[in-house]
Amino acid sequence: MLKMPTIKTIFFISLLLSLLLVSCSDSAAPVYQGSEIEILKASVTHELEKEFERHDYSLDELDHGVPPLILQTMPRDLSQISSSSRKKEVFFKSLLPMILLANNEIHRERKQIIEFKQILEKGGKLNDDQLHRLNSLATRYKVESANLTSKQALSELLLRIDIIPPALALAQAANESAWGTSRFSQQANNLFGEWTFIKGAGIVPEGRPEGATYEVRRFENVYESIRSYLRNLNTHFAYKEMRQIRAEARAAGNKLKASELAEGLFRYSIRGEEYVRDLQSLIRSNRLTRFANVGLKSRG
């Protein structure tokens, strides 16, 4: 186990607490215009694979897009699958549609902020509905300003409201949930181990210190866990370096690269740079960048 000086240990514990605490009010239906979203309730792997087959869903044939599927739960028998390649394929096929749905939602939010910015730059004013939407997004992405229509506030919103490359989300999900087999992912639909202090809103982790009150947050479905994770990366101060790397890529007109953004996540784990290297290795060894330009299936 990595040993740290006392002061650094205390700082990391404080940081970890703030990272793992998330709002339980962050819930909304997917905003998506395309093929009808379907919630899959398959509880075991072979049932889920049949559902994928029914949707003609193969990771090797994504030219026509990914079907918009939401998993109610991860398959209960994932840990029993002896074939590593099969387990990984099921894991990636399960999460990719939900990551794309969540990114689609963020993309629409970002587009709205850009539209508001363009109106204001041309000397126009936002109407009441637009101002209400602006306030809602500022609240969701934790941007505080006396004047949300200011250039500075809008720039901060654009810094935060942006997508996470699927490759990075998949790598972190695999790392944090042990490929969907962890207790929290299985019992609470929680892929990333997020905490809550609302009694009964989660499950009590084994080995929780006496007197501690936190629980591991329970999500309604796997999609909600992914949405919460993306919001966490886009709002928490610990990941400002990642957001800056992303903003610089945008400003230069470059595509977002998962391995580059991973460089800004050294505070995600006590392992620091070693954790970043693990993510980059997962991205590389599983060829996750092949999903960089994949989209959701359109209607029809």
Automatic annotation (TrEMBL):
Entry annotated with the keyword Nucleus: no
GO terms for MF: amidase activity
Record keywords: Signal
Gene3D superfamilies, alphabetized: 1.10.530.10
Segment forming the signal sequence: 1-28
Domain Mannosyl-glycoprotein endo-beta-N-acetylglucosamidase-like, first and last residues per copy: 142-276
SMART domains: LYZ2 (SM00047)
Protein name: Bax protein
Natural source organism: Malonomonas rubra DSM 5091
